[in-house]
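INSTRUCTION: Work out how this chain folds

Token vocabulary: learned, describes local backbone geometry

RECORD BEGINS BELOW THIS LINE
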Amino acid sequence: RVFSGVVRRVLGCERGSVQHRHHRGLYLLRPCRLPPPAPPPDSPFLPQTSREMVARSAATLITHPFHVITLRCMVQFIGRETKYSGTLSAFATIYREEGVLGFFAGLIPRLLGDILSLWLCNMLAYLINTYALENGVSTMAEMKSYSQAVTGFFASMLTYPFVLVSNLMAVNNCGLAGGLLPYAPTYSSWLDCWSQLHREGNMSRGNSLFFRKVPAGKRYVWEERRFR
């Protein structure tokens, strides 16, 4: 009986050890459960661009009076004038001569140019980053930043006519020599300015950093240092 009891105890211990190793092996061989992949996020292109458009339009609307004053302060160097000698005096001069609308001269083409440039830039960058660049590249973030910069450059080139028209309307018929004949014609509206520039082929005037295009039908007079 003693011998049989010892055998049963040894066999019981051995069976328990085998079962423990068996369950441990099953635990070790059990495949690791990875977390389920997150669903692909919705495209942030439309909501993000819409929010950025609203923010940029609001910023343009608020800062445009300062933009007008800056342009007129630069243009008055053409006639060696001192009409706009400071920020406060410039605000008073514009309000006295043109009213509140004088602070927003050239606002509409500037707003249109900013909105078109923003949508073109973000749309081209989104298409390039989504369909042209492959995921998994080590320099993926750098490539996306480069694509954003390149698309922004091309978008600014395409929308440059809006910037040109906006700047011309900001100084149009403002009492400065640079905004009057013979230096610049008087425009009735920004659409009139656009059509006249388009008719003369000057929609890209001043766009180049190194070259300057001669206005159509005009020649440069050295004695007067201007085109006639």
Summary: The beta strands are 220-221, 226-227. Residues 1-11, 13-42 have pLDDT under 50 and may be disordered. The first strand starts at residue 220 and ends at 221. The first helix runs from residue 2 to 29.
